[in-house]
Amino acid sequence: MQTNLSEQAKRLSRAEEAESILRSCVHCGFCNATCPTYQLLGNELDGPRGRIYLIKQVLEGQEITAKTQLHLDRCLTCRNCETTCPSGVQYHNLLDIGRAVVEEHVPRPLSERILREGLRAVVPRPALFKALTQVGQAFRPLLPVILKSKLASQPRPAKPRPTRRHARCVLMLEGCVQPTLSPNTNAATARVLDRLGISVVPVREAGCCGAVDYHLNAQDKGLERARRNIDAWWPAIEAGAEAIVQTASGCGAFVRDYGHLLKSDAAYAQKAERVSALAKDLVEVLRAEPLEELGIHGNRRLAFHCPCTLQHAQRLGGAVESVLTRLGFSLTSVPDSHLCCGSAGTYSLTQPELSRQLRDNKLNALESGNPEVIVTANIGCQTHLESAGRTPIRHWVELVEEALI
Question: Which end of the chain, C or N, has fewer beta carbons within 10 A?
Answer without folding.
Answer: C
